[in-house]
Specification:
The chain is α+β, with helices and mostly antiparallel strands and about 325 residues long. The chain folds into two domains: about 160 residues, Fructose-1,6-Bisphosphatase, subunit A, domain 1 (Fructose-1,6-Bisphosphatase, Chain A, domain 1, 2-Layer Sandwich); about 140 residues, D-Maltodextrin-Binding Protein, domain 2. The protein is built from nine helices and 14 strands. Helix 1 runs antiparallel to helix 2.
Length: about 325
């Protein structure tokens, strides 16, 4: 797959159109309608592209989602074979309640190069680290913070950790508090939370906790370009979860996945803001035009930038 600027522009357009579709329902208290609008738009735009695309991470399986389900084929079938991971509306509650941080997200890679993640929880950690062995899922919170503190030449009280505000993270938060670490709690936005370690301007050094497995794969596509650290481990709590994982080819239920296990080869990541958040601004209206802002990464070219564009209604 040769990825050129035209190809990148096409996928920025896909997420921008989906973001605009959802934007019209922001604050309407209907997260189902907001999500459906983004899904319908993204599917419509993907099917216009000259690609032979397959959804490997989507809105669920065929019996759960009528559109953009895992295994669905998209595109005209006249172009390169690519794997596609989507989250048309990341942060449904953000959009429904007009809160910061709602995004429309997509990641693509060459065929068979993007991990086909099951719809289950994942223990995950991302950090502003290039080397392995500094932070690790098997380390205690204390060891991760002390190692990171030494690596970044910061005192623990000057380290900032991002954690989703969930009861399941009570022990993590308590341990961070004992160490005097600054904590940034987020209510939703698993993808963007993991990405806050990528640039100094976000002032986050480590993201840790349990979130969605598919969101972990989406975030990995961007983190890979930034050369930061990511590690994930799926949590299979039921026999049904294990059976679904087995059908996807997963046999080791306790394996730790590094970036190289999740994203192979070249990749593109696009995240367009619906409502303004830490990563990008939401849809704005300027001179009677809708303006989108998209974080774009492209691994092989090293592109890491924000693209603004006028979004036309479909």
């Amino acid at each position: 797959m040769t990825i050129n600027q035209e190809f990148i522009d096409q996928f920025v357009n896909v997420t921008s159109k989906a973001a605009l579709a959802s934007y019209h329902l922001v604050g309407k208290k209907d997260k189902v309608a907001s999500d459906k609008a983004a899904v319908d738009s993204m599917r419509n735009e993907l099917n216009k592209l000259n690609i032979n695309g397959k959804i490997v991470i989507g809105e669920g399986e065929l019996d759960e989602a009528p559109m953009l389900y895992i295994g669905e084929k998209v595109g005209t079938a006249k172009g390169p074979e690519i794997d596609i991971a989507v989250d048309p509306l990341e942060g449904t509650n953000f959009a429904a309640n007009n809160l910061p941080g709602a995004l429309s997200v997509i990641a693509i890679s060459e065929k068979n190069n993007l991990f086909n993640a099951p719809e289950t929880y994942m223990e995950k950690i991302s950090a502003k680290v290039k080397e392995k062995g500094i932070v690790d899922l098997d380390y205690s919170v204390k060891k991760n913070i002390f190692n990171l503190s030494e690596y970044l030449n910061k005192k623990p009280e000057n380290i900032t950790a991002c954690v989703m505000d969930r009861p399941r993270h009570k022990n993590i938060i308590n341990n961070l508090n004992k160490l005097g670490v600054r904590i940034k709690l987020i209510s939703d936005g698993d993808v963007s939370g993991a990405l806050l370690v990528t640039e100094d301007k976000h002032n986050v050094d480590i993201f840790l906790g349990i979130g969605g497995g598919p969101e972990g794969v989406l975030a990995s596509a961007a983190i890979d370009t930034y050369e930061c650290f990511f590690q994930g481990r799926f949590l299979f709590n039921t026999e049904k979860d294990k059976l679904r994982a087995t059908k996807m080819g997963i046999t080791n239920f306790t394996k730790k996945y590094n970036l190289s296990d999740i994203v192979k080869g070249d990749s593109i990541f696009c995240a367009t803001g619906i409502t303004s958040g830490d990563l990008v601004s939401g849809i704005n209206i300027e001179n009677y035009e809708f303006i989108s802002e998209t974080l774009v990464t492209h691994k092989s070219s090293g592109i890491k930038k924000i693209i603004k564009k006028v979004v036309n209604r479909s």
